[in-house]
Design a protein that fits this description.
single chain, 442 residues, alpha+beta, Glucose Permease (Domain IIA), ten-stranded antiparallel beta sheet, two-stranded antiparallel ribbon, 6 helices, 16 strands, 51% helix, rod-shaped, disordered N terminus, metalloendopeptidase activity, zinc, protease, transmembrane helix
Length: 442
């Protein structure tokens, strides 16, 4: 039971609660102090707060875990999207790199083919140039300049190939390709990409090859024009003598076929078909070959004709045509021209041919007649000594006799005639033509 006590001054004191504990015959009692109550209340409150907190955590934990997993799922998705984008970028860069490399390789292959074609053309052109030089045509180009251009083109192609090797060597591997492609990398000197350098080299090599091609075509065109001009000039000069040396087109084609087959032992044949010359260069080569063959044939015909002087450095004392006969004193035809020469001066054949007369022949005295073919012949009269026999084949400029004063002659001189199909023509036509032709034949 509880008891209370009072104070005379302050009145009654509040009674303290007493807690009685009984166990069998033993009874215990304990006074419950205010602080004990406070501690108990505090512990109860603490337990309640802890219980509520635990309950709240358990309730919210699932939400937190779900949110975290959702966030991680979003992050993983974003990461996978980024990886996919990087892979796509790598694929694009790799494809662009392969495409660039393929384009470069195709350009290099094309340049090599062009260079090989030009080299082959130079080989074809070389034989024609030699023939042109033998024909007296001046070559407008120089092999040295062309060789330098070839060397420059070769050096440029080699430089491009070195750039391709550098690009492959310095190309980043793996994902790094997404950030740098071989043919767009800046070289060690900085400020310049391999692509830029390759483009400049391509431009330089292409320019060199075009220069070579243009030079070859210019040389061909100039030589062809020169051959045609020389042939026309020779034909015009010869035509003034009453002769024609224009070759038959069929003979030109046949000669071209023989020139193409020179240097080979392979038998050939078949019907003639016009060559396939769709390529401009090949067509120009055919034109030059045809012009050279025509020039060579014309020159060959001219060399068979009597255009040289039978007595070089001798004066002409009597021209061709009507004159007073020195023996009869009346008008007569002088069928040749007379040269003032001393007895014993060498008389030379004015063209190659066959001796048909070698002996005494009336008013000619000792005479030599040479048949040059195509109805052309020459006569040499009043000779003191004959050095050839009938049937001999002589060359142009070969000594055939020595001058004298035999036959109807008033003194030492050489009587010289040119005959076409048996008719006497003025030899001065041939001598004048010979002087004009010297620049085209010699």
């Amino acid at each position: 039971m509880s008891q209370s006590s009072g104070s005379p001054i302050f009145g009654k004191r509040k009674e303290q609660p007493i807690l009685i504990l009984a166990r069998g015959e033993k009874v215990h009692h304990m006074t419950v102090r205010p602080w004990m109550t406070a501690v108990g209340v505090s512990l109860g409150a603490l337990f309640a707060v802890g219980y509520l907190a635990s309950t709240s955590y358990l309730v919210l934990r699932d939400d937190l875990i779900g949110g975290t997993m959702a966030r991680q799922a979003r992050m993983q998705h974003d990461y996978e999207d980024r990886i996919s984008a990087l892979r796509a970028q790598v694929d694009r860069v790799t494809s662009r790199q392969l495409l660039d490399q393929q384009v470069v390789e195709e350009k290099v292959e094309k340049l090599l083919q062009q260079q090989q074609a030009l080299t082959s053309r130079h080989g074809k052109l070389g034989s024609l140039i030699e023939r042109a030089e033998e024909s007296g045509l001046a070559d407008p180009g120089t092999d040295k300049a062309e060789s330098e251009k070839h060397a420059d083109a070769t050096g440029g192609i080699q430089a491009i190939e070195r750039l391709m090797g550098l690009a492959a060597k310095t190309a980043p591997k793996g994902p790094a390709l997404a950030y740098a492609a071989p043919f767009t990398r800046t070289d060690a000197r900085g400020g310049d990409t391999i692509t830029d350098r390759a483009d400049r080299l391509f431009s330089r090599v292409t320019h060199s090859l075009k220069d070579i091609e243009r030079s070859q075509k210019d040389r061909i065109a100039t030589l062809t024009s020169g051959a045609i001009s020389a042939t026309d000039a020779i034909e015009t000069i010869v035509a003034r003598t009453g002769l024609s040396v224009t070759p038959d087109p069929a003979d030109v084609d046949a000669a071209r076929g023989r020139s193409d087959a020179d240097g080979t032992d392979t038998a050939m044949g078949g019907p003639y078909v016009e060559p396939d010359t769709t390529d401009v260069f090949d067509r120009q080569l055919v034109e030059l070959d045809t012009a050279l063959v025509r020039l060579e044939q014309v020159r060959g015909e001219v060399r068979k004709l009597p255009f040289s002087n039978p007595a070089p450095q001798s004066d002409i004392t009597s021209q061709f045509g009507n004159r007073l006969d020195p023996f009869l004193g009346r008008l007569a035809l002088h069928a040749g021209i007379d040269f003032r020469v001393a007895i014993g001066t060498s008389v030379r054949a004015t063209a190659p041919g066959k001796v048909v007369v070698a002996g005494r022949n009336g008013g000619y005295g000792n005479m030599v007649e040479i048949d040059h073919g195509n109805g052309v012949s020459t006569r040499y009269g009043h000779l003191s000594t004959i050095l050839v026999n009938v049937g001999d084949v002589v060359k142009a400029g070969e000594a055939i006799a020595r001058s004298g004063s035999t036959g109807r002659s008033t003194g030492p001189h050489l009587h010289y005639e040119v005959r076409l199909h048996g008719d006497a023509v003025d030899p001065m036509r041939f001598l004048n033509a010979g002087m004009k032709l010297s620049s085209y034949i010699d």
